Each structure stands twice: as structure tokens, then as C-alpha cells.
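On clarity, I found the account of how folds are encoded harder to follow than it need be. Since the whole study asks how a given chain folds, the encoding of that fold should be made plain. For the editor and my fellow referees, an illustration may be useful. An entry of this sort, consisting of the sequence and the corresponding C-alpha cells, reads as follows:

:::
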Amino acid sequence: MVPLSIIKKGASALHISEIHLRDPFIVPYEGVYYLYGTPGQFAWTDHAYYLEAYSSRDLENWEGPFTVFTPDADFWADRHFWAPEVHCYKGRFYMLCSFKSPTRCRATQILAADAPLGPFRPLTDRPATPWDWECLDGTLFDDGERPWLVFSHEWLQCGDGEIWAQPLTEDLTRAEGEPVLLFRASEAPWTVPVQDSPVGGKSGPCYVTDGPYLRRLPGGALGMIWSSFGKEGYALGQAISHHGVAGPWEQAEQPLFSKDGGHGMLFDTFEGETRLVIHQPNQNPLERPVMFPVEVGAEGFTL
């Protein structure tokens, strides 16, 4: 068990509705839930200083914030510390987070720690996504044969936002093989473009891909939730693959959640219920973590 003295050290009590956080990610571990995400106060500023986490035993009342990552002075990024998510993998805790600097592409880097509250330190001295791509929202998925880094290739560079998968070595320190394109945002029937003018030398309307998250479904297929924009604003879609991470991926006709909320993930409560957590609304500084019960079936997810 995690000692209560660690959970409460330097913490204050907050209701979930008081936590200003984008891109929420919840990890249940030894009777405690840990909440990570993009700190709302500097999500869009030109400088970011740290990453934080919160802890709870009931998903309503939270202790924190606890600082879980503070970059060294020579860390390559200084802004847009976005969408940290933490995975317990082979006995350690690995944080995947997007970072940005004025002189380098946005990228996902992997950090590691021995406990859920860190401190997290960079696993290597370089990001895990391609160095000349604008990338964000990396997630980790182990399919039983190898670990995969699944991430977004940002629409600001490629126009029609993409989701890619990169096989990793077992220790997560480097790529192993070439990345695989899974799908483009416009392939989902429910997405709408964020602008009609091209970017990055690409032609056609521009679509967003954000926040992929994978989960094994009953029967063995893979389900993925991911975010873009639909007719009612920021939204959460889903896709299914019957042939592993590399796909092909079939897009749902309608979004799973459509009303100005998204960038979600799925977790199981200690009582055995599966829940979806997203941020809603998508407007700064109003973003808050919001949770919904979810049914997980052979063909995907149902709120």
C-alpha cells in the first residue's frame, strides 16, 4: 500500500470539480487513484514549469497537487507540457508527455519513476517520436508481443491529422522498426475540419487528431478512443481493429462523446466498473475532469 503520509504530504483537499486540468489520465494503484493531466494554468503559455498529480480514494475528493516532474535547466523543452499519462510497465512507472520548444518540433518523451508520484526523470536524452515531425499525445500499449508508442502527427504540419504507431524495444528506450500509419482524421465520418485552408504545403481542409488510447476488447479485438472536432465542438471518437495495432482500423459512424469534451482514457475502478474520463468543456480556463460509466463490448465502447 502507498503510505498515507506520502499521499497527504503538502496536500490540500479538493473536489474533482475544483481541479483545473486538461487531458486527464487516471491510474488506480494499491487502493489509490492518481490523476495526471495538462496543468490548465499554463497549457497555452510560452513557459511551463512542472507537471502535477493528485490522489484520491473515492474519485470525488482529491489531495494535491503534488509536483511529479520538474525539468532540469538543460531540458530541451520549455513550454506546452501536454497530456502526461502514466503506465505501470514491468515494475516501474512510465510517463509519456508532449513537450515543445521554440527551436524543436513538439514531441513525446518517455519519463520513468519508481512510484506513482515520482519524481519522474527522462528515460533517455531524446524524444521517442520522429525528431522532424510535430507530434503529441503519445500513449503506450503492450500487445503481448511488443510495446507500441501510439501518437498523433499534428495537423499543423500534415494538414489531415494522423495517428501513427511506433514499435519500441522492451525497455522503451528506442524505436524498433519503422512507424506505421493507422489512419487520418478525415477517415472518421463524424469529423469536421478546423479550417479549410491548407497548412505545411498540404492541400485540402485540415482535421485534428488528439489523444489516442487503446484497450483490448472482449473477444480479442482492439478498441481505440481518440479526439477531433465534430458538429458540436471537441469530441471523442472510437475505432476498432481486428488485426492488431497496425490495423486496419474501422471508424465508428458517430462520436462516443460529442458535446465539447474529449481527450479521454479508460480505467477500471477498484469495484470493477469501467469509467471514461475526459476534460469538459474544451475552453480555457473552464476545463475540468469529468467521468462517465462505460460498457466495454466486443465491438467497442458505450456510454
